[in-house]
Design brief:
The chain is about 35% helix and about 15% strand. It has about 250 residues and is of the alpha/beta class. It has one domain: 3-Layer(aba) Sandwich (Rossmann fold). A seven-stranded parallel beta sheet has the order 1-10-9-6-2-3-5. It binds fructose -6-phosphate (F6R).
């Protein structure tokens, strides 16, 4: 069963997650972080940038992102690469050569997936950050009858495309495919932090924590990993049987 931390709001959840990352950075000479994108992670990146301005250096950190849209270049404003640049990379001191994302516009996607797996095989993730889709996806490992272990190209499901469409307000086509790391590299991480905020995540959170382990809810597989912590706000925890008690515990500790 994953550890659960329930905070009154997303800001205090983000402060907690950033403190966990800080601890990893203090403990490791060359920390490796698996990073995620999406609206959930924005308060966390803001908090990390704040900590950087107060003196925290990321100079020895390597980052490996989970996913990227197929067909988008790093310059495309809707790409995860541009998101990372806007929200995190341009504000901190991670060396450019130590920031990795899949290349969405690679001419040979199969070769790009192999390249990414080779990179992951030489960089053990100290901490993997995850968000969760309302359909239970992690990375872009969408619900299915079977799940891929390796980095692969995935056809995004309609509900994922619909949610992602807010990142493409100019009417440009929302990508229908992505490159995502597979479950093997997520599972190889020493520690996993899954962040979920807001009521629309409550069902997926409850299903993945308390439901059966099954490929139709990829996040439920996290029940099999020994060191997973869910960082939730009260709304995202709303369908967990113990939500009220967990929130009271957290408030008492702060
Ligand atoms: C993004 C990713 C996705 C998101 C998930 C939640 O890199 O891997 O799994 O974490 O779709 O997205 P938000 O946070 O926008 O609700």
């Amino acid at each position: 069963m994953p550890a659960l931390r329930v905070f009154p709001d997303e800001q205090s959840g983000a402060v907690y997650a950033a403190a966990v990352m800080d601890r990893v950075m203090q403990a490791r000479r060359s920390p490796v972080f698996g990073l995620a994108t999406g609206s959930t992670q924005i308060p966390l990146y803001r908090q990390l940038v704040r900590m950087h301005r107060q003196g925290l250096s990321f100079a020895t950190v390597t980052t490996i992102n989970l996913d990227e849209y197929v067909g988008l270049s790093t310059q495309s404003p809707g790409s995860f690469s541009a998101y990372m640049e806007r929200n995190f990379f341009r504000h901190v001191d991670i060396p450019p050569g130590a920031r990795h994302l899949p290349q969405g516009d690679a001419p040979d996607l199969a070769a790009e997936c192999l390249r990414y797996d080779a990179l992951l095989s030489t960089h053990r993730l100290d901490l993997q950050l995850l968000g969760i889709g309302i359909n239970g996806h992690i990375g872009f490992n969408e619900p299915s009858t079977s799940l891929s272990l390796k980095t692969h190209v995935v056809a995004l499901q309609d509900e994922t495309i619909l949610r992602n469409s807010s990142d493409f307000p100019d009417g440009s086509n929302v990508p229908r495919q992505a490159i995502t790391v597979g479950l093997q590299s997520i599972f190889a991480a020493r520690t996993i932090l899954l962040l979920a905020f807001g009521r629309d995540k409550a069902e997926a959170v409850a299903e993945s924590v308390c439901g059966q382990v099954r490929t139709s809810c990829p996040a439920s597989l996290l029940q099999l990993h020994p060191r997973v912590t869910y960082v939730l706000d009260a709304a995202a925890a709303g369908r967990l049987p113990d939500a009220g008690r967990l929130l009271a515990l957290e408030e008492a500790a702060w």
